[in-house]
Design brief:
Length: about 500
């Protein structure tokens, strides 16, 4: 998970803080020192650390915290607000041209992942209803043009590449010609992939400035590897002076355990982080939300991003049909397979679970999550015949052996899958009938209607003895209760009847 080591340090700091009922100035000073140490160890810029800790100390020592019912929680809130501020505050989104095409120029060092990022951004914009085109202006690095064409094809986005590259061609002319190409072909966004170097040099900056002057981009995005920590600050300063970028994109954020680049670049350059790349796949790319990232760092979860991913992955019509199947008790293994495929669209299972509040406390369990479990389950179901998927009761011992051999698993794996599926079906039937579901291995939900405990109590309860007096017995059978004597709050009369 991103920012793993920083998150762990801060979580431990606040855990000891929460154990105190009332905070003293010494407690605040100790907490601020721990935060300062955690940030410095995470390779955050010293200037950013100083301003951050000063703001936290000032607010934490204020009357608002002293008068709060839960001072420790108030301090956590202050830290979250300050984290959000140094990450970009409210943030901003891409600015589009009033008259298409919108030109987006990418700049950064070689190895930062510009070419792959260009395809990810193009796919993101295409899914949002735009018609982007990628422009191959990295004519220096061997194979750069071919790479852009490959990832462009994977993203389903056309590539403007009139020059072969590998040292051949004029990148400034290609960039200038791409505007006319986009206008003729009705592309509303042009994404220009520029050349990088292993280090900052004047030749690279001169070429980037020339391309910027030729196309007059609406956005110049500085692409930086999130894993290089404070080195990102020095590189960002150089590119800011050289091409004056308008926004930042973080790559390889999933491998960044410290967070030095993310927490430093905004404070040093005063440019917002717009996007973040969170994996190798083209769809592992997201809008950067400072508030959500601050919550992730403090282990408070990022439920909003999780919901958005689910909304993208799950088809509404399919879900409506599935709900009807739940109610009619017609949920089959085919439906189960469809659900698994939609879960896979959401991305890494481990990263999804990591967005839940308190996920750091389940780190060992998350590390044991095997992403291949879903693939194995898919293989088992696909090894079944259509009739077996619709009617699982057909799965006798010989059929299960055949399915195990066909999917490359053991018969035990098949049996375990069917046991889980049976439990799921039982839960759905219970819910469909208005009952309380019973969690596997946990029994009925405590306090819920129809719990086993209450049923046993009712079952074992002896019938109430009836009076031998005919008049009184008739009254009891009619359901009319005898009025209670006054003077008792517990339903007991003032005196017992002899």
């Amino acid at each position: 998970m991103a920012f793993g080591s920083l998150s762990d340090r801060l979580t431990d700091t606040f855990r000891s803080l929460r154990a105190k009922g009332k905070l003293q100035p010494a407690d605040i000073d100790k907490t601020v020192r721990e935060i300062r140490r955690a940030l410095l160890e995470s390779d955050v810029s010293l200037d950013v650390v100083k301003s951050f800790t000063a703001a936290v100390r000032e607010k934490a020592l204020g009357d608002e915290v002293n008068k709060a019912l839960n001072p420790a929680q108030q301090v956590v809130q202050i830290v979250m607000e300050e984290l959000e501020a140094i990450l970009g505050g409210t943030g901003r989104r891409l600015e589009f041209a009033k008259k298409p095409p919108t030109v987006i120029m990418l700049a950064g060092l070689q190895g930062a992942g510009k070419t792959t990022l260009a395809a990810k951004l193009a796919k993101f914009l295409k899914d949002d209803g735009h018609t982007p085109v990628l422009v191959a202006c990295d004519l220096q690095r061997p194979g750069a043009v071919d790479q852009l064409q490959i990832v462009g094809e994977q993203a389903g986005v056309p590539v403007f590449a009139p020059e072969p590259g590998s040292g051949v061609g004029d990148p400034v002319k290609v960039a200038k010609d791409s505007i006319g190409f986009a206008t003729d072909k009705l592309h509303d966004i042009v994404i220009v992939d520029t050349a990088g170097r292993t280090g900052v040099d004047e030749e690279m900056m001169a070429q980037a400035r020339a391309i910027r002057k030729a196309v007059d981009p609406d956005e110049v995005l500085f692409v930086v590897d999130a894993m290089i920590g404070q080195d990102a600050v020095h590189t960002a300063k150089a590119f800011q002076d050289g091409v004056d970028f308008t926004g930042v994109v973080l790559t390889k954020l999933d491998g960044d355990q410290k967070g030095g680049a993310a927490l430093s670049v905004k404070g040093v350059t005063d440019r917002d982080i717009l996007f973040a790349s969170t994996g190798e796949k083209l769809d592992e790319f997201e809008v950067f939300h400072p508030d959500r990232m601050a919550r992730r760092i403090l282990d408070l979860g990022d439920v909003m991003t999780l919901i958005e991913q689910a909304q993208k992955a799950f088809d509404e019509e399919t879900q409506a049909e599935l709900e009807q199947k739940f109610l009619s008790e017609q949920f089959t293994l085919d439906d189960f397979l469809d659900q698994l495929q939609q879960v896979k669209k959401m991305g890494s299972l481990q990263s999804m679970l990591g967005m839940l509040p308190g996920a750091r406390g389940m780190k060992d369990q998350l590390d044991q999550v095997d992403e291949k479990d879903i693939s194995r389950t898919e293989a088992i179901i696909r090894s079944m015949t259509p009739a077996e998927r619709q009617q699982p009761r057909l799965l006798n011992a010989s059929r299960r052996k055949r399915i195990a051999q066909g999917s490359g698993v053991t018969v035990t794996d098949v049996n375990q899958l069917m046991a889980r599926f049976d439990q799921a079906q039982k839960m759905m039937k219970t819910v469909a009938k208005g009952g309380v579901p019973q969690m596997p291995g946990m029994g009925p939900i405590p306090g819920g209607a129809g719990s086993g405990k209450s049923k046993r109590k009712q079952k074992g309860k002896k019938p109430k003895a009836r009076s031998g007096n005919p008049a009184k017995r008739a009254q009891e059978l009619s359901g009319v209760e005898k009025p209670q004597a006054p003077g008792s709050s517990f339903g007991l009369g003032a005196s017992s009847e002899s």
